[in-house]
Amino acid sequence: DAMVIQNPRYQVTQFGKPVTLSCSQTLNHNVMYWYQQKSSQAPKLLFHYYDKDFNNEADTPDNFQSRRPNTSFCFLDIRSPGLGDAAMYLCATSRNLEGIYEQYFGPGTRLTVT
Amino acid sequence: AQSVAQPEDQVNVAEGNPLTVKCTYSVSGNPYLFWYVQYPNRGLQFLLKYITGDNLVKGSYGFEAEFNKSQTSFHLKKPSALVSDSALYFCAVRAPDTGTASKLTFGTGTRLQVTL
């Protein structure tokens, strides 16, 4: 089945130690998104890629970076995690940029910062 | 700016009874509206959407939603609730295409609890 896969499902890192979260998709969608979700709150969009074009949300901290080496994979890098970065990180895809297309979410990676 | 309100943090319903999860929105122009469900420690799962056309939209798992433009609402409904429907439900809205990404604005979520 076509899907969005995130690895790992659970990640523990130390304060200040860089961490990378991975997302892959078999949907062949053009757009990939990264969201941060805390404590069953609404997901907060960090950034997205349309193909190779990167779009950062204005309020996303510089501590968060992303890479998309090809259509299928997208990575979230947290350069110096703080305790406040502990959250669920959700990857999502959509076929294209138009709003008519729903987003497909991966299962998420729960990040713990010690 | 677009926004979504889900006025109930939690909805409790007995299995077999009908359920409604409320959502109202604010957006310029005709909205694109979505419902997603989230089970514990999982990602969001798409349920249904309204783009245009028939105001009653049918989705996955027997859910449906009715778009009401005059009341700016998009309430989620199901005729007969199941215990397995217990989850967190998010309503989301997007303004008509502005040339930017499909950025959704999510509501704060409503926890549905279905009991025997």
DSSP, total strands of chain B? 12
Number of domains of chain B: 1
What's the CATH topology name of chain A?
Immunoglobulin-like
Number of helices of chain A: 0
**pLDDT under 50 segments of chain B (min length 5)?**
none
Assign an overall shape of chain B. globular
Q: Determine the strand fraction of chain B and express it as a percent band.
A: over 45%
Q: Structural class, from secondary structure content of chain A?
A: mainly beta
Do you know the CATH architecture of chain A?
A: Sandwich
Q: Outline the low-pLDDT stretches of chain A.
A: none
Average pLDDT rating of chain B: 92
Mean pLDDT score of chain A:
94
Shape of chain A: globular
Helical content of chain B, roughly? under 10%
The CATH level-2 architecture of chain B is identified as: Sandwich
Strand content of chain A: over 45%
Tell me what the structure shows.
The complex is a heterodimer of chains A (114) and B (116). Chain A has 114 residues and is an all-beta fold. Chain A has a single domain, classed as Immunoglobulins (Immunoglobulin-like, Sandwich), CATH 2.60.40. Chain A has no helices and eleven strands. Chain A has strands at residues 4-7, 10-13, 19-25, 31-37, 44-50, 53-56, 64-67, 73-78, 87-94, 104-105, 109-113. In chain A, a hairpin with a 6-residue loop joins strand 4 and strand 5. Chain A is globular. The mean pLDDT of chain A is 94. Chain B is mainly beta and 116 residues long. Chain B has one domain (3-115): Immunoglobulins (Immunoglobulin-like, Sandwich). In chain B, 0% of the residues lie in helices and 50% in strands. Chain B contains no helices and twelve strands. In chain B, strands 2, 5, 6, 10, 11 and 12 form a six-stranded mixed sheet that branches. In chain B, strands 3-9-8-7 form a four-stranded antiparallel sheet, with no helix packed on it. A two-stranded antiparallel ribbon of chain B has the order 1-4. Chain B starts with a strand and ends with a strand. The A-B interface holds A 4, 6, 31, 33, 40-43, 45, 48, 50, 55, 88, 90-92, 94, 96-108, 110 and B 32, 34, 36, 38, 41-46, 49, 51, 88, 90, 94-97, 100-104, 106-109, 111.
